[in-house]
Design brief:
With 118 residues, the chain is mostly helical. It is built from 4 helices and no strands.
Length: 118
């Protein structure tokens, strides 16, 4: 279980470093700090994990693996929701830009036609 704590510390170090460089937004930094904290706490508080694992008929490692899997699944779903929202925003912006460009070109064609008539 010390390995889980060390992995948690490594993840925490990487996440903080990415966040400081501006490569990871605050929103995702918090989520990944949660993942790192889970690993760190699970490694340090193995005395809580083992009785719970025995109660469920699992090994402590299997229970931790299940917990991490569930937590990462929640993060993956949240990221999918965020990406879907960003795709909608991009589509809306592209449509608005196309409409503005159409209006601009239509306006230029009308003014060119007026100048050609004079």
């Amino acid at each position: 279980m010390i390995i889980a704590a060390l992995i948690g510390l490594l993840i925490l170090f990487i996440v903080v470093r990415l966040s400081r460089r501006g490569q990871l937004s605050f929103r995702y930094t918090i989520g990944w700090i949660g993942v790192a904290s889970f690993g760190l706490m699970a490694g340090l508080f193995v005395w809580i994990v083992e009785p719970l694992a025995d109660l469920l008929g699992l090994s402590a490692a299997a229970l931790l693996g299940l917990g991490v899997l569930l937590f990462l699944t929640v993060i993956a779903i949240q990221l999918s929701v965020s990406i879907s929202g960003l795709q909608r925003q991009v589509r809306t912006l592209v449509e608005e830009i196309a409409e503005i460009e159409f209006r601009f070109r239509s306006g230029n064609n009308k003014s060119n036609n007026v100048e050609n008539r004079n």
